[in-house]
Amino acid sequence: MVQKNILGKNRLYFILTILLASIFQSTVDVQATDRQVIFTKLGSYPTGMSAFEVTVIDDIAFVTDDYTGFFIINVSDPSNPTLINHTIISQSYSLFIDNNHAYIGTFSSGMIVFDITNLTNPIELGSFDDGGSSTDIQIVDDLAFVANYGNGFEILNVTNPANITMIGSYVEGQYINSLAIVDEIAFITVYFSDHDSQLVALNISDPINPIPIIHSKEVNGSATLQYKDELVFLSSWSDGLIIMNFSDVYHPIELGSYRGDGVTTGSFYVDDLLFLGKYTTGLKVLDVSDLNNPKVVGGYYDGGSATNMFVVDDLIYVADKNDGLEILQFEIQESSETIIGYKWFSLLTVVFILYFSKKIIIRKV
């Protein structure tokens, strides 16, 4: 005797409907995002021979040029920057603006302090020169922390700019290129005579007696650093970029790196983007949302050398060694692709239904 399908056609359709529904309901949409940064040049201002550093505050750009001095530029109209003042300073390099004071580090005359209350007429208040070159400066309260390329790491009392005094120092390898002060910790890059650099963290809770906490990453060539949110971005002339996590200053963790092309001169981090200055290839932008895997997402090169940069909103101000101050606008473009996947339990559902459907609809003889 032959037994026909006991469920009938309607039941078969019901089973197939359940099968399709389970498949579509259990799909997972995965968004793969591709990020790209596009640059548009808005304007520029020629500073002379060799722009080195730039800081922007309230539509005013402060720029140092190694050959021509200190510039104060109105950038309220980025397409037409206009000069407010130019002060001739021999071999001006580093720069820090604190309230109404400008601290200018030079290669040959130490650190010079200007009163910039009147932007059209900066007034020199005093200076400190014990030899060497002031390659980086940061002001905290009444203390100036100076990276001195020749005399090490110096801590100066600048309460009275006319009578600046040194209260503490740390000398190792003598040549300090860069620094970042974070609470009671000073991060410095030390350059040794064998052409290697090392990242060092100092305890400066007692400014009279800085104490080394840890000697960290060694790199080839001169190096600079930027600190942001427990991260140190270490830029080496020879080894490119190295990202380190210093949430535990005694046990830093090395994350991702990027070598790329050309000499890396400096960096600026904002909103998961890291802007890199390249001596021979201009400006590069890395997406560092994944700190272990930085990716190039844009760049700008017009033949110059990007030595330093400063980002405000969607504008980046570049100190270009050849072209002076350049103002670029950048736009982040994101495209996403939907990838359809399936949860593991949806596969079990399909197998289950197919198996029992076959058992039910088969004709038994």
Overall description:
With 365 residues, the protein is mostly beta strands. The protein has two domains: 8-26 and 344-361; 45-332, Methylamine Dehydrogenase, Chain H (7 Propeller), CATH 2.130.10.10. It is built from two helices and 28 strands. The protein has a four-stranded antiparallel beta sheet with strand order 1-28-27-26. Strands 2-3-4-5 form a four-stranded antiparallel beta sheet, with no helix packed on it. A hairpin with a 3-residue loop joins strand 19 (231-236) and strand 20 (240-245). The longest helix is centred in the first third of the chain and has 18 residues, at 8-25. The relative contact order is 0.16.
Give short descriptive properties of this protein.
four-stranded antiparallel β-sheet, disordered C terminus, 10% helix, 2 domains, Methylamine Dehydrogenase, Chain H, mainly beta, 2 helices, 28 strands, 365 residues
Describe the secondary structure blueprint for this structure.
Layout: H1 8-25, E1 27-45, E2 51-57, E3 60-65, E4 69-74, E5 82-87, E6 92-98, E7 101-106, E8 111-115, E9 123-128, E10 133-140, E11 143-149, E12 152-157, E13 165-170, E14 175-182, E15 185-191, E16 196-203, E17 211-220, E18 223-228, E19 231-236, E20 240-245, E21 253-258, E22 264-270, E23 273-278, E24 282-287, E25 295-300, E26 306-312, E27 315-320, E28 324-342, H2 344-361
Antiparallel strand pairs: 1-28, 2-3, 3-4, 4-5, 6-7, 7-8, 8-9, 10-11, 11-12, 12-13, 14-15, 15-16, 16-17, 18-19, 19-20, 20-21, 22-23, 23-24, 24-25, 26-27, 27-28
